[in-house]
Amino acid sequence: MPIKYTLERADKTVKARAGWLKTPHGEVPTPLFMPVGTQAALKTVHPDLAEAAGAKIILSNTYHLFLQPGPAVVARLGGLHEFMGWRGPMLTDSGGFQVFSLPGRVITEEGVRFAFEKGGAPTFMGPEESIKAQNDLGADIIMAFDECIPYPADHKYTAASVERTLRWAKRSQNAHKRQAEQGLFGIVQGSVYADLRERCAKELVKMDFPGYAVGGVSVGEGHELMMRAVEHSEPFLPKDKVRYLMGVGRPEDIIEAIERGMDIFDCIIPTKMGRAGVFFTSEGKLRIHKKNYRKDRYPIDTACGCAVCKRFSRAYLHHLFEVDEPLGKTLGSIHNIHFYMELTAAARMAILENRWTEWKKGFYAKYLKGGDEGEDSSQKSGKKR
Amino acid sequence: MPIKYTLERADKTVKARAGWLKTPHGEVPTPLFMPVGTQAALKTVHPDLAEAAGAKIILSNTYHLFLQPGPAVVARLGGLHEFMGWRGPMLTDSGGFQVFSLPGRVITEEGVRFAFEKGGAPTFMGPEESIKAQNDLGADIIMAFDECIPYPADHKYTAASVERTLRWAKRSQNAHKRQAEQGLFGIVQGSVYADLRERCAKELVKMDFPGYAVGGVSVGEGHELMMRAVEHSEPFLPKDKVRYLMGVGRPEDIIEAIERGMDIFDCIIPTKMGRAGVFFTSEGKLRIHKKNYRKDRYPIDTACGCAVCKRFSRAYLHHLFEVDEPLGKTLGSIHNIHFYMELTAAARMAILENRWTEWKKGFYAKYLKGGDEGEDSSQKSGKKR
Question: Which chain B residues contact residue A41 at CB under 8 A?
């Protein structure tokens, strides 16, 4: 089995877990945040700098790579790791999330007919096509092709969709040709409905995947309903498999999901915000465009040990954004990736040292003091740009 | 004296020289190419990656920094090195080149009245203002405020302009307040006129600068006239001072200028072309947009040892440019900076090993085989974007 999760310590009072996830490209600690490199690249960040910022597993997007350069080209060039020069583990999503959000897509039992953006030709993607593409791309972790439905959706539609997602999960499993090199994860759907989340999780577990994702979240439902979706799914997932909460999220979403038993996360928020000049700090978010940073000789976060904070002042970053120098986006992304990596590393340490609740309270006391200036939690990885 | 040039070996048959240039931030070998970081940043390139690509001295632009964040702010933050996190030597130009190219600028004996782009307020810059700004910025090498005239210019105008440039050079010298930390270079003007180049060079040498630049080139005059400008200036410059050919250029411009006794060079060509997907190789320029690179597993240049060529294929770079991923610009810039750094390093080695002409022939035999697809040689550093 290419993917193996080992539970190191489970908290006694909440469901938070610390563990290790073994992949063909190395073993990584969990909980773990995974930065998103949609088009086989972390936007504005050289892989050496991402690695230095602590990135361990990175994501790429089957939909985008399907379009360009095409999975067959990537396979011919030795797979995604070789193609993009990333030495650590990788994960690809199934492409479903993007395909379902396209206007004019037609869903049938077979799969989805759609036209790629930019006036593309009509295309078909079902479980077999998605898995074939992901086998070609060659990431360590690949995802079943599921129907990611919008929020809100009624119970009737969701119930029928869950059954289709289960049939597609089975077909994904059957289509998977590289079982020795890649682990295929099942995805729990079911929107906000406890009964459907339970049924989906239980049926997927019968199929025995090496890891399970909670999907269909971060689609505009908000923090509370996102947490309900986790709570409705998690009890039915095995303890000896890793749990992946897809497309999440803000630091507080991740912390609360860890507390509810989730292990790995991906989101475009840190890199997207980094490029926009919004930097995460231990005391909340810092917006570098503000005039008061013009002469500020302090680093982004005096409590941060990242390569950006050790070398550059807020004044320099303010300048880079002021004159629209691309290096500003690079440095902002590096800092934010480091923040997210430190966040999950600190969560892990707190779990191991049996001080979860104390750590969480301490984090929030500082972080929320700075205020959340209104980001929603719906910034799913690989969302159409 | 903060700037000291030591001649290591002068070729016996041509004027090529190998030497060392000592600055407050380290000693560097010459001939040397200096990458341009116009707005206190190398566009798309993190300083660690620039250093790894071999960059030793980098340039910044007084005009751009005058506008934002302002030299006083940079001074308050500890100077340009501290501000932008660059540990090696730096050079600032005087801002004159940009100011003179602005529409509506008015030149008087005092200096130049102009309005900054983007609807800026009327501003004045003369030698005193430029040197004050450069003292504030704190680069190791700073440049006299000169009149950089366009090509073509008639003899009468050029003669009057050279006299003004000489008076401004004297005023620049008098205005320079940080003689212990920064070396001020004089700039030889005179357009294409041998008598004016000679007069300008001789008068500047009487003022005794720690280094001399040949300016007023790379303004559209073409390779032949650029070489004439060097030949008309160089004989009158002292052997024990470094010679800087400003805003040059293509590899063949640099090689021919080294052969004519020039030591240091700056140009936006490698980074600008790198961002445009045009990569320098030992066999000429490679345009990564071309379809035939789509599945090409080779590096940009199989003869290149740069970090990009060691890790990434042409196919990956083609993909990055195809989907407009910023990482493509970064990798292209790194490769091209490395190419230029290797070019001047190889030239230096050839001079030291007494095989200049043989090396030059060998370089051209491979490089020109690939063809020059029509770049002109007028891409001056820091030209208005």
Answer: 320, 325, 327-328
